[in-house]
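Protein fold
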Amino acid sequence: MDTITSRDGLLKRLTQSGGEGGVLRFLTCGSVDDGKSTLIGRLLYDSKLLFEDQINVLERDSKKHGTAGEDIDFALLLDGLEAEREQGITIDVAYRFFATEKRKFVVADTPGHEQYTRNMATGASTADVAVILIDARKGVLVQTLRHTYIARMMGIKNIVLAVNKMDLAGHSSARFHEIVGEYLKSAEGLGFDSIMPIPMSARFGDNVSHRSGAMTWYTGPTLIEHLEGLDIDSDLQTQPFRMPVQWVNRPNLNFRGYSGVIVSGTVRPGDSVVVAQSGITANIERIVTADGGLEVAYAGDSVTLVLDHEIDISRGDVLASAEQRPEVSDQFAAEILWMNEEELLPGRSYMLKIGTATTPATISALKHRIDINSYAKQPAKKLEMNGIGVCNVSTARPIAFDPYQDIRDMGAFILIDRFTNQTVGAGMIEFGLRRASNIHQHAMDVTKTQRSQIKSQKPAILWFTGLSGAGKSTIANLVERKLAEAGHHTYSLDGDNVRHGLNRDLGFTDVDRVENIRRIGEVGKLFVDAGLLVTCSFISPFKSERHMVRELVDEGEFIEVYISTPLEVCMQRDPKGLYKKAKAGEIKNFTGFDSPYEEPENPEINIDTSSIAVEEAADTVISMLRDRGLLG
């Protein structure tokens, strides 16, 4: 038995070692307690890959942690974490290697619990086949459907429907066909190449490696027979050449190479390649590896490519076949699996990582979510944890990609929370939004610098944030008045005022609040480009959106003014009677009452109006503008 610690390294070694059927990667998935770990443990045991001391440990642990009575609990071979053994569940993905005379296998055991859906998606991302287990007593469950859909999302074309624990269902042929019929009806239209139903009892090995004497009515193959004979067309070598650049290798002045893993295709010295994002071409001069030069490199190889002349390449660029180029766009449609407790909100800014490239990105539209019970498309304004939806994604700069169904590594991406650095979503690109390629930035003769010089000032956004009643609009109004009296060019954007026009269609849900600030940020950016000092008075409760606006303008052009007046003071003031209405239940999603406010961590100015007069607060803001050289 060989536990995988380096997937790419093991797969490369397995491929080099040959084998009649090659290497097949599959995962087991399904709902809780369907017997996934038990099945893999049985496969390892039947393949005679366990040493005597391992069997002794397994027998001992079965008595301590097992759930199979006096029999061996094969699940313990996979559930290696102490927490897994104590709880009797699978938490993490466990990879194992085993082989038969006809084929080598890499198998992933994935969790069944809904909260570990992201782990299941991880296992599915590299699999050729999904073995979906169903407890014969329980039938098709919601998690069965979810894992089936995720398998389809991740590009898996072949399904084995393993109806397990048939011994507990009396080895009933009728029950088996009832479950198979229900499953096939639910999976209709998902586009799988094959779905192979097999009745089995993993605990006793029935129809796993050997035929069951208790289910003679079943005449199909055992699981192993089916997997041994399955024809998987996954040869990435026939795909166009793609290599995301991991780093520029420059050990000395006489050598410059571009290092990375080839994710598809082959490459040889003399081949013409293109930097996908810039369109600049060059020829391969040499292929360098730690073991020496190569005459040809294949998908999966880690190489350094030396070109025949120097061109501008950096980490995140993609080297591709000059004749078969990937798509390059800053907008595309993608299917997204959301993995975070905090919902996905359209308009919010995340970091998107695809290959070796990382760039800011926003979900510009959530087109629909998938009802996991029926696979129907439903309208939605947000995605909750473990939700699946089809979205339009907009990136800060164009990225190179291929549709996920064509080349997995070129179409898969993750979304990262900008503040916690946690992975919050996984996406599969479906196609580029080609309208983006028809839009170009038009160069204007009059620039922001010239507009600012005419006004004898430097532009900036003064972003006033804080709770309702804190004093944002009052201070911002006074700041603008003082600036105007001093001859400066200003404009004011106020939260209430813009909702009478620009944002009159928005409510106060989290989704609408995000869109509200996104629009204001874009308008504020235009005023900065016009050379103005623009005050923006908005509760803007989410730091993600405030950070998004900061990134829209140049360094030093966003000044966050946090009006940090305590909630109890704001509630006492209640100038618009909003807190009173919120208490009475007349207003929903009111910030500070039943909707959160995320305090700024490092604002340029912090003002508490419970301890400072409005006049002094305004003078403090203007003094900072003068100190920063913005007022000329």
